[in-house]
Amino acid sequence: DPLWGLKTDADAARKCYxxxxxxxxxxxxxxxxxxxxxxxxxxWLKTDVAMPRCWERxxxxxxxxxxxxxxxxxxxxxxxxxLSSFFAMAGRRSAGLLFLAIMQTFQVNRSEGSWPLMxxxxxxxxxxxxxxxxxxxxxxxxxxxxxxxIASAGSIxxxxxxxIELMALTLGVIHAxxxxxxxIIAPTIINEHFVKNKGLAMGLNFTGVTLGLFVFPKLLExxxxxxxxxxxxxxxxxxxxxxxxxxxFLRTPSWRDISPSNNQLDPEIPAQSNDQPQSPKxxxxxxxxxxxxxxxxxxxxxxxxxxxxxxxxxxxxxxxxKGVMVSTAVTVMAAGAVFEVLGRLTLPAVIDxxxxxxxxxxxxxxxxxxxxxxxxPFVNSHDLIFTLAFVIAFTIGxxxxxxxxxxxxxxxxxxxxxxxxxxxxxxxxxxxxxxYLIGHFRDKIGAYDWLFVICGxxxxxxxxTWIVVFEFQRSKRKNNVTQTENLPGEITVTTKCSLSxxxxxxx
Length: 507
Fold this sequence. Notes:
Keywords: Membrane, Transmembrane, Transmembrane helix. It is found in: Membrane. This protein is an all-alpha fold and about 500 residues long. The chain has 3 domains: about 1-60, no CATH class; about 65-250, MFS general substrate transporter like domains (Growth Hormone, Chain: A), CATH 1.20.1250.20; about 285-505, MFS general substrate transporter like domains (Growth Hormone, Chain: A, Up-down Bundle). The chain contains 22 helices and 3 strands. It has helices at about 5-15, 20-35, 40-45, 55-60, 70-90, 90-95, 95-105, 110-115, 115-125, 130-140, 140-155, 165-195, 200-240, 240-245, 280-285, 290-320, 325-350, 360-375, 380-410, 415-430, 435-445, 450-480, and strands at about 485, 490-495, 500-505. Strands 1-2-3 form a 3-stranded antiparallel β-sheet. Helix 10 packs across helix 11 and helix 13 crosses helix 17 (about 325-350). It is globular and about 70 Å long. The protein starts with 5 loop residues before the first helix and ends with a strand.
């Protein structure tokens, strides 16, 4: 009734998009003042005049905080990290096309033409040796900005590369160092801005890397046909400068200094960094070398990277050996990128919702990798080969996110940049061995079957080791819960209460 002013207040509230509860309380107060029947009030409140159909959507959006962990600002940071990685890792995702273009431009054989790309893949990982300490010393923002600028500059400098050696220097070293800085620091920034939705945000960041597969190979193919390799890389470097613009948006959150940190994704996994005093010194971050679980994570990540390289580099050739047409195998690889994106987003989101523990996700990733790689060499059905390829792609998608989440759970955001940089750098050192390993099985043995079996066995060893670690932690935690110790005097300490101390009243 307009006489009561109810519709006027509702219209004013709709214009300013205020919270639904605020509107209800406002109208309810006015209704009570005028002794309006509760039934009449409820009937009016449910009408479209008082409550628009899209009101529930507005109300849900208003529940997301504007600042602080897991806020609107945090999701904008996650999107900026994803786009920075999207541009920085574009060269790595276009390695297949660049390999052919380099051989045609410089008229070199496959061994010489692969050097710039092999260096690029290794240096991206080895950049963690300098990136982690730099981020720990100066914070993450200047490092990711410098990385985006260096990655673009390296690609632009390829325009002046007249020999294959200069191409290896500009593309394989300079561009790769910048791309590695962005790739390694982005998870650290995500870890600083999220608590509850850290897994999904990590997946969103790494999805930016995967999406480059759908854009940049075709873009470089067009540019190479129109302007040649040197002109294509010049324009490509200019396009990658967009990543610098997104990296400028990133900042260290102010609430990290004033709010208690919650670095644990799984309450059963200890975050050692919370039990130690925070120190700006690098030697504090280097204490990760004292933790045995750090070496287990490093081994698991290297196993994951070996399987990733084998799948990306060898699947098309392997499928052709099984009688699959080249065009069909390439299509399956492109479709596998979709499953890779699903792996980066779905499993971390399930962990964030508490439906799956992170230790279960680690085991699931390693077990799926072990089973698929062990079965793949003995399968001749094309449909089954394609199905296993999609499972491997899904596992590859989950692996990068799960291992970064595991590092964050054990060591916290204070040591995230250093620990993740060292783990990734260890995989970079192993990258120099992979070409010889692949060449041995293909050229001397004549098939990739035993290489895939080795990948499966390494994943199985990693899964078995994690089971032992988790069982040890479970038994230790069970003893802590059941054990109680009565100290002399009037103080009783119970480990079940997580170091809480209760003083008994005097008798």
